[in-house]
Amino acid sequence: MLIVITGGDAVQAEELKSALVDFELDWKVEWAPDPVAANASLQSADVLVTDLETHGSPAQLELRERNPHAIRILLLERGQGGDAMHALDGAHRVLNKPLDAGELIDAVESVVDLRKLFDSEELKNTIGRIDSLPPAPRMYIELVQLMRDPDVSMAEIAYVLSQDPALAAKVLRLCNSAFFSAGREITDIRSAVTRLGLGMLRQLVLASETFGRSEGPSGIDREAMQTRALATSQLAGKLLGGPSAELAATAGLLAEVGLLLPGIGDVDPAAASEDGADPDIVAASPGHAEAGAYLLGLWGLPTPIVEAVAHQSRPRRMRSTGFWVTGAVHVAAALVKGTPVDEGYLHSVGMLDKLPQWRLMAEQIGHNAEAA
């Protein structure tokens, strides 16, 4: 593992080396004042750590094309949040400056664990080159207009944000970066809006509109996808209930977010089901579920959300003895899309007898969506 740190001073690199010895990690650390000076090392870097001054340099941007596997970590000082909005899309994780060795090690190890889970070279290369999830333009316009109202409430902003899974993912990503999280995971949109504040959120939306535009697959019906996402979110939260309801609802909202990614080559699962495609074949192909989960994991969203998105079609992969977020998302997504529920899985976790009741709940949510 080669970690290349650019910008700042060499002291942080030496401190990291000492920490690696304490943690008994056989990682190498190199420091350079800027990406140009570190050009030779950048080509073989596993992790690139930059500050705001060096993050958007031509050399750093070239690295993303030549070495998409590299984990890109951005360091921010307190007070730089607004100025750094344009840089967030190019970073996999955001950490506080000065660099904390323990935080960096945790961030790198979590990404490495995720890559072991999704060990696909094609997937890594594709995701590594993607800057941002492309939100629906209509949502940008609605949010910007809403935030021009000085009396707008946090609840209203959270409601509008929850209508678009892509934008919801971006907001959650920012909130769960070390720069904003203060050690507590945020798993629901209203808490995210409260943490950021309307001023920071307005900058995030405007910066996303300016810098985060990218074209997604042309065959995706975004309106239908958003309708499914909202229904899945509502149902997953009700299925799980209790303190984990918001976690399940958020995972349900983001379950199909991989469909928005360009270059994945997946199909819309609902459309495939309507066309008579074998759902087992669709689920078995390494496509939108793995891609969406991989990207959400790179961005630092909570592990239960990442796992639920990844295993939404095959919950038994989790090897869990209980019914939690992944199970709730699997059932909710299947009932909303009209694909088979894994009844063997539900039997194994003692929840099969609840399936008839859950089907009725899904039908009611579907009726409400049609009436809306």
From TrEMBL:
<feature type="domain" description="Response regulatory">
    <location>
        <begin position="2"/>
        <end position="112"/>
    </location>
</feature>
<dbReference type="InterPro" id="IPR011006">
    <property type="entry name" value="CheY-like_superfamily"/>
</dbReference>
<protein>
    <submittedName>
        <fullName>Uncharacterized protein</fullName>
    </submittedName>
</protein>
<feature type="domain" description="HDOD">
    <location>
        <begin position="133"/>
        <end position="315"/>
    </location>
</feature>
<feature type="modified residue" description="4-aspartylphosphate">
    <location>
        <position position="51"/>
    </location>
</feature>
<keyword id="KW-0597">Phosphoprotein</keyword>
<dbReference type="InterPro" id="IPR014626">
    <property type="entry name" value="Sig_transdc_resp-reg_put"/>
</dbReference>
<dbReference type="Pfam" id="PF08668">
    <property type="entry name" value="HDOD"/>
</dbReference>
<dbReference type="GO" id="GO:0000160">
    <property type="term" value="P:phosphorelay signal transduction system"/>
</dbReference>
<dbReference type="InterPro" id="IPR052340">
    <property type="entry name" value="RNase_Y/CdgJ"/>
</dbReference>
<dbReference type="InterPro" id="IPR013976">
    <property type="entry name" value="HDOD"/>
</dbReference>
<dbReference type="InterPro" id="IPR001789">
    <property type="entry name" value="Sig_transdc_resp-reg_receiver"/>
</dbReference>
